[in-house]
Amino acid sequence: MNLSLIPNIRNIASDNFFLIAGPCAIEGEDMALKIAKDIIEITNRLEIPYIFKGSFKKANRSRLDSFTGIGDQKALNILKKVSDEFKIPVLTDIHSVEDAKIASDYVDILQIPAFLARQTDLLVAAAKTGKVVNIKKGQFMNPESMKFAVNKVIESGNNEVMITDRGTMFGYQDLIVDFRGIPTMKSFATTVLDVTHSLQKPNQNSGVTGGYPEMIETVAKAGVVNEIDGLFIETHTDPSKALSDGKNMLPLDKLEGLLHKLVKIRQTVKSFNK
Description:
This protein has 274 residues and is α/β, with parallel strands linked by helices. It is 34% helix and 18% strand. Helix 3 packs parallel to helix 4 (120-128), helix 4 packs across helix 5 (146-154) and helix 7 packs parallel to helix 8 (255-272).
């Protein structure tokens, strides 16, 4: 994937990792605009290329009474406002062929959820929109098998594709990140580490996913040391009040300190390659 082809992407000359960050789900216009504004200021100071993310709907919930969104059209309009107001690229995930057609009019990057990483019709539909496609690695898939998911997009006429590792199932209620997979997946496409979803605790008896947010810095540092192309971090002004995935999100006021450390690590790692 050619990062420079993403509309309105900034700071690409910095040779930093790029950042995909924002709330799990769009909960309202004010929260989306505030989070985007704050992250733009942080990433501009640190010269990090930035993509805002936010789900316009959450289709794969544990329980029927789980939050799924504020309404598809309302959330898509907010994503478009973030893009237009701040002139930054925006990403959202899709769950059906129809979603691909609709969401592509509002965002720059279409994300394929991990549970749907092998769904051929969805991958082809996303590819045919001409948008950048981000494929989450299925928790049940090995890194080598992501080659076939990537090829479905490329063979549909779209070379702008990336892979995001969001962890691998380790038993029924835990995930691990196998960093051996990073160079493997980088040989297929631009590769991102989803730091926050990798720290989820799925399949809890309550029907609400748990997490290990205290490990966000540890996993992010390991990703940068292993020369990941990009990082994916979900953040919220108050994760305890988030309507989705609050148990594994990073508080927004802790983001700049973390990114500052990660940029320093990136610079050190890059110096070894000179």
